[in-house]
Amino acid sequence: MALRGMPAPVADLDTQPFWDALAGDRLVLPHCASCSKPRWPAGPMCPYCYALETEWKHAPATASLYSWTTIHHATHPALKDQVPYVIALAEFADKIRLLGNIVNWDGRELKGGEPLKVVFETRDDGVRIYNFHI
Ligand SMILES: [Zn+2]
After folding, report:
1. Full domain range(s) for residue 84
2. What is the helix (H) or strand (E) element at residue 22, kind and residue range?
């Protein structure tokens, strides 16, 4: 279950397609329309060939656990009844890494490289987001 009470994500010109896709339960990543390389975070220019055209393509449905931290002390009042939870850095193909929560974590020890499955959830404010299952 997504963390409750956190500020809503804010889309901008570079990330609006990402959030629009999440509303339809699709995780997409920006790819350069010229050299086809994916990039993250989203930005207006390809960092490899400097092209300005972007194509949004589906991200894989799975990733691997690259790194993580377990939060035991709430840093926001809304989280005080939701600790502990895990923030994961998931690695997709081409070394694209996205942050998310492992929402089905049961307290067990995690290991780097574990497979993660992308899941979609609706926040209390109705915004669709992605997270991960182990
Ligand atoms: Zn490029």
Report:
1. 60-134
2. helix 16-23
